[in-house]
Description:
Elements lengths: L1 E13 L15 E11 L4 E12 L8 E12 L2 E9 L30 H4 L1 E12 L5 E10 L13 E18 L5 E17 L3 E19 L2 E16 L8 E14 L5 E11 L12 E13 L2 E12 L15 E12 L1
Antiparallel strand pairs: 1-2, 1-16, 2-3, 3-4, 4-5, 5-6, 6-7, 7-8, 8-9, 9-10, 10-11, 11-12, 12-13, 13-14, 14-15, 15-16
Amino acid sequence: MAIHGFVSQGFLYTSDNNYLADTEDGSFEFAEAGVNVTRQLGDELRVGMQLFARDLGPLGNYSAKLDWFYLDYRWRDWLGLRAGRLKLPFGLYNDSVDVDAVHPVALLPQSVYPARNRDFLLAQTGVELYGYHDLGALGALDYRAYGGTIFLDPGESSNPAVRLVALDIPYVIGARVLWEPPVEGLRIGASAQAARLESELLAPAPVSFDIDALFWVASVEYSADRLFVAGEYSRWHLDTTSSDQMLAPDRSTTSERAYVLAAFRVRPWLQPGGYYAVYFPDVAQREGKEGHQHDVAATLRFDITPHWLVKLEGHYLRGTADVAASLNPTGESNRWQMLVAKTTAYF
């Protein structure tokens, strides 16, 4: 049996625009903790689970939940089957967003890995086929395909005039393929995911609101010696329909999301890095501060001990596409800065 865990506490401060939490005055509402257990039951069968809690502004509030769990039968290297609540293999890092020790940055690029949407994007309840196939001189393929559903709590609406009374995701299906060419440390991948969301609102009369979503992302990563470089480009297509065209007319939107990231291990205990990320919520409307968000980040990672690290990160941002109106009732500023500090202990 293997038992692992982590505790992370962060601090967020922004010069303008409350982001993820009430950050204009500084916020410690950036914390998470988890413990996971895995056990091998024979040569081919394995089980695992993780208990997780977080606090991110209005989200989480340290409510512990079973984050993921699985029953894993690995028949051959090239074919295995998992069932349970399984992490979604979307992009390079969606299935490792809560493993702070493997990332050089304090806050993953929010254009592709939005922390506010973790409950929706982290895991699905269903099944997954996976495998790893050696291609000889061409390298190797790592592949995963899955299908199931996502259970979400409707929660509370930020608008008192509108109440969410039902929220259902009938299906989510997807796949990821990572090619490891015969170049040490290089991975090239593609991911795709389709899902349907059905909801019912009281506003004040009942209104149905449905979304058909298709996400895809192209990925590349190079990690060798002391250098780490990664980049991803993604588009998310949303088709929304509503029973009340006055309240929410039918529409289709496509968002564009991308980043490039680099880090270099100067010393065993010091790794500087940084990234540039961009987000356009609607490729047909890129103008205005609400139509885009550019994020330039610089990070210092300090590995104090083999089980304790500290990260300091500065961001310069332009645009407010990912700034929540509910946290900024008086409006948003176009140009702003953010400081992120985070410390994590793990075992």
